[in-house]
Amino acid sequence: MEKFIKKLTQPQIGLLIRDLRQEMDLTQEEFATHFGVVFSTVNRWEKGHNKPSSLALKVIQNKLEAMGKKGEHLLQRYQV
Q1: Domains in the chain, start-ordered, CATH in brackets?
Q2: What is the pLDDT of residues 35-65, one digit of tens each?
Q3: How far is CA 20 from the centre of its chain?
Q4: HEC profile for the chain?
């Protein structure tokens, strides 16, 4: 899973983050708090203006892994 998430392009990462946030039933602000960033950062990720840092990607990856099958299904949507 780790190698795969790092290979995603910016549009794919933004969509994955949006889907993850929606699966967690969180607003962008709540998601930001949960992942230790500010609202505008999540907003830029989802809109494709910025890519998450390596540390943020690792935290997102850990959350996807903790979700088990649901996390795997989210990632599979963006497999090339």
Answers
A1: 2-76 (1.10.260.40)
A2: 999 999 999 999 999 999 989 999 999 999 9
A3: 6
A4: CHHHHHHCCHHHHHHHHHHHHHHCCCCHHHHHHHHCCCHHHHHHHHHCCCCCCHHHHHHHHHHHHHCCHHHHHHHHCCCC
Compute the residue count for the chain: 80
Is the overall model pTM greater than 0.90, yes or no? Answer: no
Tokens of 10: 């910016």
Average pLDDT over residues 5-15: 86
What is each CA distance from 67 to 9, 19, 24, in whole angstroms?
Answer: 22, 13, 10
What is the distance between the alpha carbons of residues 79 and 39, in angstroms, rounded to a whole number? 27
How far apart are alpha carbons 74 and 80 in whole angstroms?
13
